[in-house]
Amino acid sequence: MAQTIFERYGGFSFVRKIVSAFYDRVIDSPDLQGYFANVEMPRLIDHQTKFVAQMMQGPASFTDEQLRRVHQPLAIGPAEFQEITELLCETLEDFDFDPADIDFVRAQVLRREPFIVSRHG
Ligand code: HEM
């Protein structure tokens, strides 16, 4: 059977490195840093590690309904969603991800937009 992206890139230890680099980018963004100002970073990084792993076909831990519940109160708009998606894909480029694998991950993230974005206009 074909390996998943998660397996091909080395599992959780590789994902952990991606997540640190990804979060550095998010925190540097003036449009995004406010959302994370009051969140304990170690906890969030732990969760985001599972999230990125899930987008790479690794072990799934968050249902669409859980994602909706966590993000609804944050009033995230489409522009912020787009920016986070792009920062993740840029991070994967930095780690020499295959372009086809980046397209796959991007599609996985975009599929979740209806559960993350709750502010329209
Ligand atoms: C497909 C896109 C996204 C996915 C899959 C995702 C996934 C997650 C997950 C799994 C958590 C942890 C949930 C928990 O605490 O158990 C989380 C928390 C969080 N996410 Fe996202 N996220 C996405 C997009 C975004 C965007 C665009 C923003 C902001 C612009 C954002 C802001 C946050 C914040 C602030 C938290 C922490 C909430 C808290 O613990 O109080 N997320 N996200």
TrEMBL record:
Superkingdom of this protein's organism: Bacteria
Transmembrane segments: none
Gene source species: Ferruginivarius sediminum
Keywords: Heme, Iron, Metal-binding, Transport
A family per Pfam: Bac_globin
Protein name: Group 1 truncated hemoglobin
Keyword Electron transport: no
GO molecular function terms attached to this record: heme binding; metal ion binding; oxygen binding
InterPro entries: Globin-like_sf, Globin/Proto, Hemoglobin_trunc
Annotated heme binding sites: H47, H71
Keyword hit for ATP-binding: no
Gene3D superfamilies assigned to the protein according to its UniProt record, in alphabetical order: Globins (1.10.490.10)
